[in-house]
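Example 733, ligand DGJ.
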Amino acid sequence: MSIQFYPENKIFKLDTNSTSYAIQINKYGYLLHLYYGAAVSDSELDYLAYTCPHGAHFPRVESETAENPFFSKDLHRMEYSCNGCGDFRGSALAIKRSGGTEDTDIQYVSHKIYAGKPKIEGQPATYADEEQATTLEILCRDNVSGAEVTLFYSVFENLGAMTRHAIIHNASNEVMEVKRALSACVDFHDASDMDFIHLYGGACKERLFERSPLIYGIQGVSSKRGYSSHMQNPFVALCSHDATEESGDAYGFNLVYTGNFVATAEMDSDSGARVLLGINPEGFTWRLEPDESFVTPEAVMVYSNEGLGGMSRIFHKLYRNNLCRGYWKTRKRPILINNWEATYFDFNEEKLYDIAKTASELGIEMLVMDDGWFGSRNNSHSGLGDWFVNEEKLKGGLGKLTERVNALGMKFGIWFEPEMVSKRSELISAHPEWVLQIPDRHKSISRHQYVLDMSRADVRDYLFECIKAVLDNANIAYIKWDFNRSLTEAGSALLGSERQQEVFHRYVLGLYELLERLLNAYPELLLEGCASGGGRFDPAWLYYAPQIWASDDSDAIERLDIQYGTSMCYPTSTVGAHVSACPNHQVGRTTPLQTRGNVALAGTFGYELDLTKLTDEEKEIVRKQCADYHKYFDVIHNGNLYRLISPWKDRTKCAWMYVSDDKREALVTYVVIRYRIFQRNYLRLAGLDPNKRYLNEQTGQILSGDTLMRAGMNIQEILKDYDSRVYHFIAVD
Ligand code: DGJ
């Protein structure tokens, strides 16, 4: 078992092949955090607990004596920090009691260790069989309020990853209000040499990488928009100052949640740091009647001493193998052509068919019909909610179009934005009460639409039936599930005043329920997540949709930044990336078609332009790109990613590579961002077997792995702005 309990010193030790994590139950029954990091072999780690009793003013359980050693919740590293009883750092848990106070204080009661990993009912989470993971449950109790808290830890033994969540149970006879219930709390003993990493951004510039020294005080990211958001991602990392892509300590934290979240690192004056991750407590209170429970989302924690690259590769493997699921988990996804940037709302069945016909001749495998096929949807002002086919646009209906596209040998996909309703729609006239709203408050409008109350079962039933009617009447293989505005005035007509603070989370749970129901009914349906581009790129979505549209910025050069940041924890196989037209519709940049293809290959791969307008020469390039997608699929989608040159480094170039698990195959991509006269194009590779010799298929040169990794490649060509090259390496011995 990779989780052990040592009764002599009351220590839990949770090991993977590369990490250790240790918790101690102290003399007073409190859970202390002892260690998290590279694997250590000893279990007697209690010597790591804080032992420096200075300053009588720190609150403590009682005055220390020889029998009662020093213990202050404010100075010790606490495993799951509670509010109001002497720990003044950020709290993982705060429960308001019927008397109005928010004092919370939990102590150990019992524990269980078992093989495997339990499901989190109604919520997305990583999964594992009994060989892959071991789980520890620690039951704690607040003896005054009667709250019971079960802390769950699962370790993925062969992966350097662990997950956590908590269940808060009201075992008293009175109502409680959960004000904060975070998923993970990790206290670092010394974070003085650490950096803080997060992914910030906005629409068309999602998940940009930011790394800065951890500062004294609180640093963090959050969302209160009702979705995980473009602006911040529920991912943060701490790494040592000296961590590079391939060496140094890197700790990654990612929340499996698509709603309001918070992730903070708080460094105290003695350079200890507390990381907290979970549902954003702002605007959140969960009422627990006696015997009710609240379940937090899952937090994923990864540690690697092989730098940021090592951390990312663990996340990638975990998410590919133990988060993505179902029919499309490992299957090659069809190369798609999406008509959005080709036509926007201005299309009919002939236009779509012409695009599909050209696409089929070039090797593209699926037509995705984007926004505008339903209701009175000719622009963004109307139609959302009226999910029936607009037969003025699609003469003969969906059945006829899909049949014609299928006859070309192509699959057919369709766009929905189920959670929304247009101000001008039949649905809103029929059901104004289905909109999220606060009765006496003006409803903010955004993209001319309102948000449906996904906490309501009747709303979910309506949406399920609408989607079902479409799927049952035409051969549809794929849905792009879009979401184009934040939640505001988030009140629900069905909930009493005492539960309005639950709306954000109930919304998310309702969304999960609808997605689960849809996938149960249509297990072979391929879902692609989308939120005005990549506003919902989070692990919760990956549980339902194995691919997520990464950004509405499809420019190849902007995509370098976006895909670099996204790769911190999300695998290439999940990153929706398309080749689009030039000048690019978002930034006006013109880049070579080859480069657009090379950058989109580091994703799910597809097209988003009017193929009928391409020249014969361009069509030939597209044909070759589609062939390359198939040729390189395995190494890109199942291989290990090595980021070689960050696009942020000096803004002149960017490079990355994939290496197969057996190290017999590698694919290197090199992109020039800004050509500088006399620019040298040396590139040191990574992840190869130093003792193998590799044929570079493009140049014919054979070099050993050690030479390629130490001396590097010399790309002896003049590459100008936005030029790029892809090199395929095959081991020859
Ligand atoms: C936002 C998406 O990100 C786009 O790709 C497109 O589907 C539009 N919505 C359609 O309204």
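Summary: DSSP finds twelve helices and 39 strands in the chain.
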